[in-house]
Amino acid sequence: MTLDSEQLRRAMRAWTTGVTVVTAKFEDQQYGMTVNSFTSVSLEPPLVSLTLKRLTHTHELVERSGEFAVTILSADQKDLSDRFAGKFPEVKDRFEGVPTETLTLDAPLIRGGIAYFNCRVVHAMPAGENTLFVAEVIAVRGEGEGDPLVYHNRVYHKLVK
């Protein structure tokens, strides 16, 4: 019996995640996209994983540069999440008007996030229509202060304290 991908998609909506924007820069090109498939793998050595769909511009830049940056979005950055998810097709440059900064890599980070990561790819494995990247974390900033943007069942939420 083959599992229907739509059935899996509907069931996965029960998995609550944080929301990140992953960015990459190679030469004069930069791009970013909203991603919730970001997780810690190891503290020693410091490793994270990230899954990107192969046919995306962000994937191409991560593959070419071998590095990426991650911004964990705050609860008041829902519009930025939608923007980097491509929900505004009229927006040609996702970074236009968005305040950014960098750590040690050239890939931009979005100001106002609650944590930031700079990562270098150490492994890349095909995974269905995606690539699973395992990366060494080379720089971080933030200690989890603030309210994270949370995604559950296709809707953004705020954590209640």
Question: Can you characterise this structure?
Answer:
The protein is mostly beta strands and 161 residues long. The protein has a single domain (17-158), classed as Roll (Pnp Oxidase, Chain A), CATH 2.30.110.10. It contains 3 helices and 12 strands, in the order H-E-E-E-E-E-H-E-H-E-E-E-E-E-E. It has helices at 5-12, 57-65, 78-84; strands at 17-18, 20-26, 29-35, 38-42, 47-53, 67-72, 100-101, 109-110, 115-127, 130-141, 149-152, 155-158. The chain has a 7-stranded antiparallel beta sheet with strand order 3-2-6-9-10-5-4. A 3-stranded antiparallel beta sheet has the order 1-11-12, with no helix packed on it. A hairpin with a 2-residue loop joins strand 9 (115-127) and strand 10. The longest helix has 9 residues, at 57-65. It is globular.
Summed up:
By secondary structure, this protein is mainly beta. 15% of the residues lie in helices and 44% in strands. The protein has helices at 5-12, 57-65, 78-84; strands spanning 17-18, 20-26, 29-35, 38-42, 47-53, 67-72, 100-101, 109-110, 115-127, 130-141, 149-152, 155-158.
